């Protein structure tokens, strides 16, 4: 088994005399900044002037300033800006403030791995990448738990980059759940593959395909939603808690027989072949290029697809049904 690191392996004191800048206060930024502060570390939040999140961060008791000011004052600079904007902000507002001995931190390897950010040799460059959404990074920390994370060292100028990464991981609560050491290449490629083929792209298309099949065959959209979307969480929760065998123990034998005989007819050799192609396009940089170019032309394809997705029948039915489940906190539109 790969080596895992836990609380006892990490020394928070390495960060105690340092100033940490968390740049961005979105999903990861708000979570990491508050967790680090609650772990007793000195945190500055860097945002652009006029950001609606400025007052949110201040309300959480954090000191907020511009990205450039925070980068200038901090020893450890965690870049939690959107991946596609990081290189421009880095050039204009971070790079001028880098000095020997500072550390640059990422939660995703995209910009380093694909060469969009090339830091000077005399700074540490490492990654602390939570394997979960920011809101869970915060919520689990508050509950005394944590989200597992990956760490990786790209440049070890000061000789302590690995230990600093572990200390940072401890500061956000990740060493409670487990920290795995990886490389920027492995994190970037597996993260992109996971979100595209399995977690986000794979799951939403599977749900929609099931939903559409039932609705087209004349079943009520509400039944189709419960079967193909709502129940997904309940099933995944069981797998998360105790693996596939625990999920299969909990479902009926009828469901288990159907699961084992039909699943392979849905995810076929054809699907696996396409997965390998998707992985190749990530590895050879084709996906990164497409995404960076899409941003340079202000995202016409992204916007059109996002609109069509939001208007899908599964979203309309789901919204109505969720409104009848008051224990679900209302999110999104
Ligand atoms: P979000 O989109 O949620 O937040 C981005 C933040 O950056 C916002 O606070 C935004 O503030 C700020 N921002 C955007 N543009 C600028 C700019 N030009 N100057 C200054 N501030 C700016 O990002 P995420 O938290 O999703 O992602 C951050 C990093 O974490 C990425 O590298 C991502 O891959 C990684 N990551 C994210 C995960 C997640 O859970 N979302 C999981 C693991 C890794 P405003 O718009 O108010 O100015
Ligand atoms: Mg990702
Ligand atoms: Mg059933």
TrEMBL record:
Q: Which residues bind Mg(2+) 1?
A: 191, 195
Tell me one Pfam family matched here. KARI_C
Specify the enzyme's EC class, one word. Answer: oxidoreductase
Q: Which domain of life is it from?
A: Bacteria
Entry's cofactor comment: Binds 2 magnesium ions per subunit.
Instruction: Give the UniProt record's GO annotations in the biological process aspect.
Output: isoleucine biosynthetic process; L-valine biosynthetic process
**InterPro entries under this entry?**
6-PGluconate_DH-like_C_sf (IPR008927), KARI (IPR013023), KARI_C (IPR000506), KARI_N (IPR013116), KARI_prok (IPR014359), NAD(P)-bd_dom_sf (IPR036291)
Query: From which residue to which does the signal peptide run?
Result: none
Binding residues for Mg(2+) 2: 191, 227, 231
Q: Give me the residues that bind NADP(+), please.
A: 25-28, 48, 51, 134
Q: Which residues form the KARI C-terminal knotted domain?
A: 183-328
Quick one: which pathway? Amino-acid biosynthesis; L-isoleucine biosynthesis; L-isoleucine from 2-oxobutanoate: step 2/4; Amino-acid biosynthesis; L-valine biosynthesis; L-valine from pyruvate: step 2/4
Reply yes or no: does the keyword rRNA-binding apply.
no
> Which residues participate directly in catalysis?
108
Look up the record and report any one GO term of the cellular component aspect. cytosol
Q: Which UniProt keywords apply?
A: Amino-acid biosynthesis, Branched-chain amino acid biosynthesis, Magnesium, Metal-binding, NADP, Oxidoreductase
Q: What is its EC number?
A: 1.1.1.86
Q: Which cofactor does it need?
A: Mg(2+)
Q: Which positions are annotated as binding substrate?
A: 252
Give the catalytic activity. Answer: (2R)-2,3-dihydroxy-3-methylbutanoate + NADP(+) = (2S)-2-acetolactate + NADPH + H(+); (2R,3R)-2,3-dihydroxy-3-methylpentanoate + NADP(+) = (S)-2-ethyl-2-hydroxy-3-oxobutanoate + NADPH + H(+)
Please indicate if the UniProt record lists NADP as a keyword: yes
User: Example GO molecular function term?
Assistant: NADP binding
Quote the function comment for this protein.
Answer: Involved in the biosynthesis of branched-chain amino acids (BCAA). Catalyzes an alkyl-migration followed by a ketol-acid reduction of (S)-2-acetolactate (S2AL) to yield (R)-2,3-dihydroxy-isovalerate. In the isomerase reaction, S2AL is rearranged via a Mg-dependent methyl migration to produce 3-hydroxy-3-methyl-2-ketobutyrate (HMKB). In the reductase reaction, this 2-ketoacid undergoes a metal-dependent reduction by NADPH to yield (R)-2,3-dihydroxy-isovalerate.
Give the family, as the similarity comment puts it: Belongs to the ketol-acid reductoisomerase family.
- The entry's protein name is Ketol-acid reductoisomerase (NADP(+))
Q: Identify the species of origin.
A: Acididesulfobacillus acetoxydans
Highest lineage ranks of the organism? Bacteria, Bacillati, Bacillota, Clostridia, Eubacteriales
Per the record, the gene is ilvC
């Amino acid at each position: 088994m790969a080596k895992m690191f836990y609380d006892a392996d990490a020394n928070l004191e390495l960060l105690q005399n340092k100033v940490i800048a968390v740049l961005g206060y979105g999903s990861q930024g708000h979570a990491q900044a508050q967790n680090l502060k609650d772990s007793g570390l000195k945190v500055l939040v860097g945002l652009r002037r006029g950001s609606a999140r400025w007052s949110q961060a201040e309300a959480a008791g954090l000191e907020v300033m511009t990205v450039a000011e925070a980068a200038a004052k901090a020893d450890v600079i965690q870049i939690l800006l959107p991946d596609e904007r990081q290189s421009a902000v880095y050039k204009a507002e971070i790079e001028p403030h880098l000095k020997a001995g500072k550390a640059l931190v990422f939660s995703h390897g995209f910009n380093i791995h694909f060469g969009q950010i090339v830091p000077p040799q005399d700074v540490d460059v490492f990654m602390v990448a939570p394997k979960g959404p920011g809101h869970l990074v915060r919520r689990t920390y508050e509950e005394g738990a944590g989200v597992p994370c990956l760490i990786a060292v790209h440049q070890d100028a000061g000789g302590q980059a690995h230990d600093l990464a572990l200390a940072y991981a401890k500061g956000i609560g990740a060493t409670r759940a487990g920290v795995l050491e990886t490389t920027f290449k492995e994190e970037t490629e597996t993260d992109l593959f996971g979100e595209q083929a399995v977690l986000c792209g794979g799951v939403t298309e599977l749900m929609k395909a099931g939903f559409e099949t039932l609705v087209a065959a004349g079943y009520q959209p509400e039944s189709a939603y419960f079967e193909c979307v709502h129940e997904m969480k309940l099933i995944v929760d069981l797998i998360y808690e105790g693996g596939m065998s625990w999920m299969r123990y909990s479902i009926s034998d009828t469901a288990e027989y159907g699961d084992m005989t039909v699943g392979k007819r849905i995810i076929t050799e054809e699907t696996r072949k396409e997965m390998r192609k998707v992985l190749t396009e990530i590895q050879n940089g084709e996906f990164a290029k497409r995404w960076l170019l899409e941003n340079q032309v202000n995202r016409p394809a992204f916007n059109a697809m996002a609109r069509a997705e939001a208007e899908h029948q599964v979203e309309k039915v789901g919204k109505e049904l969720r409104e009848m489940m008051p224990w679900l906190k209302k999110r999104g539109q």
